[in-house]
Amino acid sequence: RVLKRELPKISFDDDVIEYLANALEGDFAEDDVVEAWSPFLISHSAASDDESVQEVCRAVLRGLRSDKDGASTSDAAVVEARVGSSGAPGGREAEAKDLAEAQSVGDRIRQRKASADKASSEAVKGLAVWLETLRLTQYAAQAREWCDKMGAADVEEIMENWEDFSDELQLKPLERKRVQKDSASRLATPSASSTAPPPGGSESGRTKQNGSEATAAAVAAAEAAGRQTFGTTENPYIILEEIGSGATATVYRCVRASHPGEEFAVKIISLTKLRLQSDPSRMLEKL
């Protein structure tokens, strides 16, 4: 409600609102909120620079505090209206409605998102991350339909039938090639469950070897899909889609090659744009 009141011409989707709400949990500092909200306010044209971001954040925070104070003041009036002059409590419907309205927007969004993520992950394990790594997210619905029809429970089963999968989704030549290359790379990697440790060897050594091979396969798939990587060569980060941008930097979502299910964010600074600032050294310190 506060965002709509302070920024009536700006529309935020549920994921962005959830992220903004998370920045307000616990004992937060105003500077931390400004830093967390900055990429999204600028990318949605709600602010144009760091100074205007601070103004918008302060206005929203003032509105939130005002709403909170107003809600506390009106508690007595709400109770009086519910009880009535005779002292008898109102119906259960009215009480349930009040409780539902008191639930925060952030909580409702998090519950919906958690339910959707759980349903998606239970359907086909690893499908969403795999499609995103290969830049095939536009085929997500068709991929789930194919998995339902074929009874595929995880990505490995898709790879074993990659040709039929590619034909069914009518992938373009380069997209098909990425699927083929990734499938060949991963299926050629022996799994720890199917390969016993060699005589005199250790289980931990075999697990480490398999982990390295799986990481190499993930990096090969990312490079085949045109994804950029950074970090150590043994276990780099894979850069995914853009989630926000400012005057001199852009924020991207990224994953670790060894743990593609764990998500991070990386800020990439354009040195060319940075040098155009009136005081690039000061701007670099702020970033």
From TrEMBL:
<dbReference type="GO" id="GO:0005524">
    <property type="term" value="F:ATP binding"/>
</dbReference>
<feature type="domain" description="Protein kinase">
    <location>
        <begin position="237"/>
        <end position="287"/>
    </location>
</feature>
<keyword id="KW-0067">ATP-binding</keyword>
<feature type="region of interest" description="Disordered">
    <location>
        <begin position="178"/>
        <end position="220"/>
    </location>
</feature>
<feature type="compositionally biased region" description="Low complexity">
    <location>
        <begin position="185"/>
        <end position="195"/>
    </location>
</feature>
<keyword id="KW-0547">Nucleotide-binding</keyword>
<feature type="binding site">
    <location>
        <position position="267"/>
    </location>
    <ligand>
        <name>ATP</name>
    </ligand>
</feature>
<dbReference type="InterPro" id="IPR017441">
    <property type="entry name" value="Protein_kinase_ATP_BS"/>
</dbReference>
<dbReference type="GO" id="GO:0004672">
    <property type="term" value="F:protein kinase activity"/>
</dbReference>
<dbReference type="InterPro" id="IPR011009">
    <property type="entry name" value="Kinase-like_dom_sf"/>
</dbReference>
<protein>
    <recommendedName>
        <fullName>Protein kinase domain-containing protein</fullName>
    </recommendedName>
</protein>
<dbReference type="InterPro" id="IPR000719">
    <property type="entry name" value="Prot_kinase_dom"/>
</dbReference>
